[in-house]
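Work Package 4 report. The design task specified in the project plan requires that, given a folded chain encoded as structure tokens, an amino acid be chosen for each position. We show below one input record used in the internal validation round.
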């Protein structure tokens, strides 16, 4: 009986632990019916090869459920939504590269070893514990038959009523619910992916590139500030840092005779996967999952890039975070793609951040926009405010000193390491706010210095940061600041709900990233069929 109680207690704790991601902590339940059913079932089984095989099988099933819960927790914390195995399995490689980019490789290996050891312990412990309950021949039976039958019956009844949504208070079937959730999520993924592919076919002709004649002589620049969401402005933990920075940027723009309007758009994602945000802005589609992105790239399709090429612009994508081959970028047919290796950066990397945003802006003006004989359409995927948010660099007042970035050597090794910083989540949030402030100030500084009446400049977030920063229920909207020396270029956006100044009007958005292409076409484009 002691063996039975210990096995039940251990199984109950592990199974109830599957509920932790759903409740962002310890849930309200104290009993998992699967634990009751398993201990009763193995107490009925005779000792032997079959029982041993079933015990190890149960251990592996339990392991799969624990791994599922771990990835669910990681997805909720990082992408601010539940895990969808069908949509998210493709992200494993990206997760590994993100972790190894932020942490020392040996720290990463040590974490993997500890995690693997813990999971092996789950298998072995469950298998040995369950097999130890198996029945011996009479009169050596350890657990009375009546108790074993009673547990099986109770476990079955409890599981059935729980699945029907009638579980007694404090009880649950977390293992069964985990499997059910993934089945439902998988069915939803199939439907969403099918609808997305059908939408691609339905809008193929509508997506064909059209000249934006109203912007024929205007440089159009999209500066995407990493992890800059509405929480940075409206959350009381970050507003004291970000709002004064926005006010200061507004004063700089006004001193440079520039005008600004601000609105909000809902990003297709939160916490990560910036490439989906970029694709949504360019295609006029809300690209939410990797499967959508793959379906998009399975066919030739025009985007904002082709609209501006038809207008006569030189098009360029600056992606300093891209270090490996990026065939997906070629799908957009940019005239130029500048990845990490295309910059002349001679300064140090700062953990995941390959180069600071101020250098990226300086390079863009010096090597792309300045020398161009044609108007420019460019997207810059900024990265200084990407986790791990350390170190925080100063904004250099003299842009002429930036050059190849060797000046940033001064800050190599400054600030806490990610391993040290991430031991204190309050401090992590402080560094998040400061890194966003830095990226906003260098982006706003670039605008104040280089934007004129022949420029339409967008400064916007790519997505909200992880749930660790925002909480699970935060809006997915991001601020969008549009700057120009010509107020007429901003007038159409007032009609779409944008307001003067740098302060977003709301933390909830009425439109998604997919609206931008349609807005530009409507306000500045050539109507379909016209010459």
């Amino acid at each position: 009986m002691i063996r039975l109680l210990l096995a039940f207690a251990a199984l109950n704790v592990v199974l109830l632990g599957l509920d932790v991601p759903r409740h962002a902590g310890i849930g309200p339940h104290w009993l998992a019916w699967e634990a009751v059913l398993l201990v009763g079932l193995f107490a009925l089984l005779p000792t032997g090869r079959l029982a041993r095989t079933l015990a190890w099988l149960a251990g592996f099933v339990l392991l799969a459920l624990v791994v599922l819960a771990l990835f669910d927790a990681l997805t909720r914390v990082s992408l601010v939504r539940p895990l969808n195995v069908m949509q998210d399995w493709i992200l494993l490689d990206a997760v590994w590269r993100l972790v190894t980019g932020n942490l020392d490789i040996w720290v990463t290996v040590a974490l993997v070893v500890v995690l693997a050891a813990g999971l092996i312990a789950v298998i072995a412990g469950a298998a040995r514990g369950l097999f130890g309950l198996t029945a011996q021949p009479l009169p050596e039976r350890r657990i009375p038959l009546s108790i074993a039958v009673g547990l099986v019956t109770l476990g079955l009844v409890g599981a059935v009523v729980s699945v029907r949504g009638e579980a007694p208070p404090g009880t649950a079937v977390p293992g069964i619910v985990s499997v059910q959730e993934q089945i439902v999520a998988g069915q939803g993924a199939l439907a969403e992916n099918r609808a997305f592919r059908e939408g691609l076919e339905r809008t193929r002709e509508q997506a064909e590139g059209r000249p934006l004649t109203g912007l024929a002589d205007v440089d159009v620049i999209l500066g995407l500030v990493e992890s800059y969401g509405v929480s940075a402005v409206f959350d009381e933990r970050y507003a004291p840092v970000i709002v004064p920075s926005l006010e200061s940027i507004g004063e700089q723009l006004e001193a440079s005779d520039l005008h600004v309007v601000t609105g909000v758009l809902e990003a297709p994602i939160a916490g990560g996967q910036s490439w989906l945000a970029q694709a949504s802005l360019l295609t006029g589609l809300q690209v939410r999952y990797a499967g959508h992105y793959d379906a998009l790239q399975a066919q030739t399709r025009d985007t904002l890039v082709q609209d501006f090429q038809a207008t006569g612009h030189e098009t360029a994508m600056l992606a300093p975070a891209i270090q490996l081959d990026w065939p997906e970028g070629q799908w957009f047919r940019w005239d130029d793609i500048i990845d990490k290796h295309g910059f002349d950066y001679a300064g140090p990397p700062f953990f995941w951040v390959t180069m600071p945003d101020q250098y990226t802006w300086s390079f863009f003006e010096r090597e792309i926009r300045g020398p161009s004989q044609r108007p420019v359409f460019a997207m810059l995927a900024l990265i200084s405010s990407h986790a791990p948010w350390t170190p925080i660099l100063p904004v250099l007042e003299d842009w002429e000193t930036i050059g190849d970035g060797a000046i940033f050597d001064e800050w190599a090794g400054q600030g806490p390491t990610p391993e040290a910083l991430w031991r204190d989540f309050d401090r992590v949030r402080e560094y998040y706010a400061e890194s966003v402030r830095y990226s906003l100030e260098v982006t706003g500084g670039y605008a104040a210095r280089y934007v004129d009446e022949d420029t339409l400049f967008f400064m916007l977030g790519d997505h909200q940061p992880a749930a660790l920063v925002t909480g699970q229920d935060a809006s997915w909207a991001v601020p969008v600041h549009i700057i120009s020396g010509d107020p007429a270029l901003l007038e159409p956006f007032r009609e779409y709900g944008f307001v003067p100044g740098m302060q977003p009007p709301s933390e909830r958005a009425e439109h998604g990233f997919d609206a931008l292409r349609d807005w530009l076409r409507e306000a500045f484009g050539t109507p379909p069929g016209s010459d």
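DSSP finds 21 helices and ten strands in the chain. Validation will be extended to a larger panel in the next phase.
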